[in-house]
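Input (structure):
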């Protein structure tokens, strides 16, 4: 691994460590600040919508400019937003900071591009696996630490501590070198935005199917912390037990499903949806008398970011090289739009019955599996490319 890839891996490890302190209890913390479950769902839905709006511009920037410069600005914005969330005294003042934090994700396509350009002669599958493992490793331990800190210091300091992690991560990312864009992309970088986005037209049918798949798996993942609170879990246990299980599941299932999907473009997506279905079933069957089922459910929710990764592999495998950032930005937009709609509906369903979001997922996920099972084969590119982001790894093979 090159020096730059090692530094990015370390930066992602620190980002995963900082984010894991508060990520899994964020909805519950908003309730502590006075928001209702419906308001939590609405805010998270808006945040996801703004994130969705940021990815396409981020992807275009990644295709046209220095990926490092586009990338590090996202790091800086996220660090400042985390500090603002920690200092917010009410849920209303919390809103702008969580929105800014979500918008900072615009840099994900740039991170993807940078890793691809900085890999050198080292096999990308090895580079990307190790890079994503850095983020996953950081996010495994931090939820447990965050849960214990929340019991002693309160929840608000978690965001401030996270901001310190992000600041160190930012300076590490800032120290990496810029890499010259691939020369054969140069003639395409001056094309109009309409033409650049229009080049994604052949991918529209795949985007449509993936939107439904994302919506189906995400509707049950928005308010598990709030559901467990109704079963008597305190915020520390939700963060330490549930968050650690989910982060562990993300790392284990991403590596396992990535290997399973190699050369079999539908198998990984189908298996991932099945695992999320089982997770939703475990949450539905959970009671206040036991904790094993929801912890196992959280572990299986690790398949959700893996589905996002595998979908990016599908997109990257069909997009032109000079459009890859834009194509991946569009897919991240599709994912965030699906999460936005899912969050709004989950909040409404939760107000009716705390188990209703899980039940909705149990109905919708099989439909998504049918849509993926009926995907038509595509002709892959002649080379191998793999990419990763702060919250996902993108794997693409000749046979995928």
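Output (sequence):
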């Amino acid at each position: 691994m090159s020096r730059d890839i090692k530094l990015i891996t370390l930066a992602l490890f620190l980002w995963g460590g900082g984010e894991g302190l508060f990520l899994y209890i964020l909805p519950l913390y908003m309730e502590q600040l006075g928001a209702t479950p419906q308001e939590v769902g609405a805010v998270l839905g808006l945040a996801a919508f703004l994130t969705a709006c940021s990815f396409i511009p981020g992807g275009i920037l990644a295709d046209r400019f220095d990926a490092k410069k586009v990338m590090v600005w996202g790091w800086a914005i996220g660090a400042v937003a985390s500090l603002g969330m920690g200092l917010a005294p009410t849920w209303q003042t919390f809103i702008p900071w969580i929105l800014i934090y979500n918008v900072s994700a615009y840099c994900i396509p740039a991170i993807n591009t940078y890793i691809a350009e900085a890999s050198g002669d080292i096999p990308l599958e090895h580079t990307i696996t190790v890079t994503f493992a850095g983020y996953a490793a950081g996010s495994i331990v931090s939820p447990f630490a965050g849960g214990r800190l929340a019991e002693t210091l309160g929840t608000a300091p978690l965001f401030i501590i996270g901001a310190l992690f992000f600041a160190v991560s930012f300076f590490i990312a800032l120290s990496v070198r810029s890499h010259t864009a691939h020369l054969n992309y140069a003639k395409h970088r001056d094309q109009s935005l309409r033409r650049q986005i229009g080049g994604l037209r052949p991918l529209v049918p795949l985007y449509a199917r993936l939107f439904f798949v994302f919506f189906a798996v995400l509707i049950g993942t928005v308010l598990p912390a709030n559901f467990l609170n109704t079963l008597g879990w305190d915020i520390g246990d939700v963060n330490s037990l549930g968050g650690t299980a989910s982060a562990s599941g993300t790392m284990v299932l991403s590596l396992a499903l990535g290997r399973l999907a190699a050369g079999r473009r539908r198998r990984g997506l189908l298996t991932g949806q099945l695992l999320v279905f089982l997770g939703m079933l475990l949450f539905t069957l959970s009671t206040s008398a036991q904790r094993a089922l929801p912890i196992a459910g959280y572990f299986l929710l690790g398949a959700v970011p893996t589905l996002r990764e595998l979908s990016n592999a599908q997109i990257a495998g069909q997009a032109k090289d000079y459009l890859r950032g834009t194509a991946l930005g569009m897919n991240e937009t599709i994912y965030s739009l699906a999460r936005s709609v899912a969050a709004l509906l989950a909040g409404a369903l939760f107000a009716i019955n705390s188990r209703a979001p899980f039940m909705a997922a149990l109905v919708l996920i099989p439909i998504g599996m049918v849509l993926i099972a009926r995907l038509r084969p595509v002709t892959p590119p002649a080379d191998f490319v793999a990419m990763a982001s702060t919250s996902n790894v993108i794997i693409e093979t000749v046979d995928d």
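Notes: Residues 3-176+203-395 form a domain with the Growth Hormone; Chain: A; fold (CATH 1.20.1250.20). Residues 279 and 297 are 4 Å apart (CA to CA).
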